[in-house]
Amino acid sequence: MRTPAVLLLVATILASVPASAELPYTVDDGVQLSPRIESLLTRIATEYRRRSGRTLHVTSGTRTPQAQAEAMFDKLRHGQNLLRLYRDEHAANEIVHAFRVERRRGRPAAVHAMAEVIRGQMQRGCFVSRHLSAGAIDIRSRTMNRSQRRIFANIVGAMPDVELLPEGAPPHFHLQLR
Ligand SMILES: [Zn+2]
Prior knowledge:
The chain is α+β, with helices and mostly antiparallel strands and about 180 residues long.
C-alpha cells in the first residue's frame, strides 16, 4: 500500500511551493502593491504571458510622498516637462517650484522639500499621482520589442477600468485605475 504515502508526498510538495512562484509577473525590490492592483496585474500578466511567452516586470507601485518626490526629482533632472505629465497642473507646479528653489542644495534636500509639498497636498485631499493613492503601477517597457508592446497595449486597451500612459526616463508604461 504505497499509494497513500506517494499522494501525501505529492500533497506536501505542492503545499510547500511558495505562492510567489505562481505569480505571472516580477517586481523590483521594495515595490508595494494594493490588493486591487495585484488582481488587475495578475489578469494582465497572465494574458500577456499567454500571448507573448514573456513575463511583465513592475518597477513601481504604491509610493510614499518621499518615493513620489524621488521619482519627480529624477524626471525633472532628465528635463521632462512635469506640467504636461500630471493632470493637476497646479499641484505639479507647486512641487516643481520646490525643486527649483532647493535643487542647488542637492538631491536629498530637494527631495525632502518636494515630499513636504506632496504631504501637504495629500492632507487637503490632492494626489498629484495615482501612485500615491495605490491606484497606479509602472511596467518596464525597454525590454519589450514592438510586437510585445502592441500585445501589452491591446490587453490593457480592452480593459475599461484601466488607463495606459507611456512615460519616458526610463521608458515605461504607466497603468492607472480609472
Ligand atoms: Zn507611473
